[in-house]
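Lab notebook, bench 4. We co-purified these components, and the gel suggests they stay together. Before we commit to crystallization screens, I want a quick structural picture of the whole thing.
Request: model the full complex, all chains together.
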Amino acid sequence: KQEVTQIPAALSVPEGENLVLNCSFTDSAIYNLQWFRQDPGKGLTSLLLIQSSQREQTSGRLNASLDKSSGRSTLYIAASQPGDSATYLCAVKGVKAAGNKLTFGGGTRVLVKP
Amino acid sequence: NAGVTQTPKFRILKIGQSMTLQCAQDMNHNYMYWYRQDPGMGLKLIYYSVGAGITDKGEVPNGYNVSRSTTEDFPLRLELAAPSQTSVYFCASGTSGGNYEQYFGPGTRLTVT
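Here is the predicted assembly.
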């Protein structure tokens, strides 16, 4: 059974510092991995999707890497801003996932202090 | 496109009451999903559907029912609400091919007292 873990559960950094968020998964037979942002009381916004054949994906200040063999993904946010404060969730789609369902990590709650 | 819409946004139920959470999508996606998110936790899959008339259980289906009569709609039914069903419920839809990306609705916050 696939398990996805995000450590730490919470993170606080001063504005301008780079953010490094970790995601690990137990079964390397994944099709893709997705990073989401969730603001308090809101739904999920997809940030980046990395296919299993890719090593990284970039969008603006965001860069996500994937090391499938070691079961790890890292989301880097450069030059953090207070507006980056949110919870970040990663989710994987297994190769054999029935219904293409996603398995989610517990999330990392980020606070960027001005 | 409105994407994935959910109603209601908030609801308070008494123990033993029933209700239906509505979900609709206008992207013509075959796949639809219901997840629940408990405080400080990730999302867990309740039920999913791969097309009209076809549904299947996820990780935590007990106490819930679903139906899928059209491609657009995927309602979630709670029978005999219990405090353990206090949670935020998210509906999502996705394609059956391509990158399999899922798109999420804004959620329904449900409290059972």
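Residues 26 and 51 of chain A are 17 Å apart (CA to CA). Worth comparing against the SEC data before the next meeting. Chain A has a mean pLDDT of 94.
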